[in-house]
Amino acid sequence: MTQTRIMLVDDQALLRTGFRMVLEAEDDFTVVAEAGGGAEAIALAASVRPDVILMDVRMPGIDGIEATRQITAARPESRIIILTTFDLDEYAFGGLRAGARGFLLKDAQPNELTAAIRAVASGDASVSSRVTRRMLELFGSKLPAADDDDASRLGALTEREREVFLAIAEGLSNPELAERFFLSESTVKTHVGRILAKLGLRDRVHVVILAYRLGLVGR
Amino acid sequence: MTQTRIMLVDDQALLRTGFRMVLEAEDDFTVVAEAGGGAEAIALAASVRPDVILMDVRMPGIDGIEATRQITAARPESRIIILTTFDLDEYAFGGLRAGARGFLLKDAQPNELTAAIRAVASGDASVSSRVTRRMLELFGSKLPAADDDDASRLGALTEREREVFLAIAEGLSNPELAERFFLSESTVKTHVGRILAKLGLRDRVHVVILAYRLGLVGR
DNA sequence: CCCGGCCTGGTACCTGGGTACGACGCGCTA
DNA sequence: TAGCGCGTCGTACCCAGGTACCAGGCCGGG
Lengths: 219, 219
Fold this sequence. Notes:
The structure is a homodimer. Chain A is α/β, with parallel strands linked by helices. Helix content of chain A is 50%, strand content 14%.
């Protein structure tokens, strides 16, 4: 059986090498390219023609969604798996709409990862079960009243970040956040930036949308 | 019976004169001051000491909420009625929290207006019935499934603005709005600005919140 | 004991978004 | 015919917000 040629796309080199190590441990996988940004990914996809692309959502410049759109348009043979830290965000769903075949969390177990890659490589689609569950909850007819440990779904966030997240969802500006939490605006910006990065969101507007969609605010 | 001394606060001079004409037609009302901004309002409230203040929410500089807060703090004898174009926004509720005694829509009938002023002048509170209804819907235990002409609640907005409003609530940026509606970014900005002004909202973040609160988006 | 995560803060920079104008064409109505 | 509302577009300005990068303090675990 021939090897599955994989490309990694993520702006964090560290994460790429982590994934590379996991993947290279499998003898039917070979990592043929790494890209640190969307533009690079598009170029490499065209030249090295990988079978499977693991695509981060959030990157400087061209983001993972747009890159997915362009790559699938130009070369549908490359199966793309969207990677995200969080299990639900607009970008990610946009990614599926953009032609991605899979959807995985970055904290997935190695066997989940390899299974997903083999699945999409063989033509199937693979979506993280947690995501599937979320999708059903969100787009199904009835969403069960959010249990109050629902905030724990924001597992990627630290305690402080969770607080800030919720406050952003209330519509507070950065100065207002600083006032509420007795922080400098610098610190607030640091928190906000980290929240956006971890959840793969573009700006505070999307934070609000996510919070409402998850039922974390507004009754 | 002595006259009720009224101050008008709104950045639109036209609207002020309109209200003034309505109010002066009542022989127990007299308009003793007009202010075009929050700072002016605070100063005038202290010097002319009106009985009732009709306060617009959205103004350049110090907004109506902050002005309300400061005036009620300094001089609780002045009863403040919040005026808004729309029947529900964060600022308005903030106004009630800030110490306002009434809440009225700018398109209220003259008799509603005069009744509200007499009510607050005599010590009662007066809240527009539409607002009351909204509050009950929003903060009551159960909100009736939004009837699909619910968007019509955005009566102040034109058709185009309504479309843009909903798209903003989806999280679209200005360039994205321009693309979706085949408009220039300039036009988009014009629409967005008008929407914010009409609804008395600060920025697009609050648009999203309002839309979700009203159940206009995201099921 | 040191290391790493977390929270905090700062500086510098740049872009998106919001504001304030003014302008033009269209269609409707007084 | 003269408005007026609406939608469109432009230019110019300013600031909030987001990004990048660095750094110190605290705490808990290896």
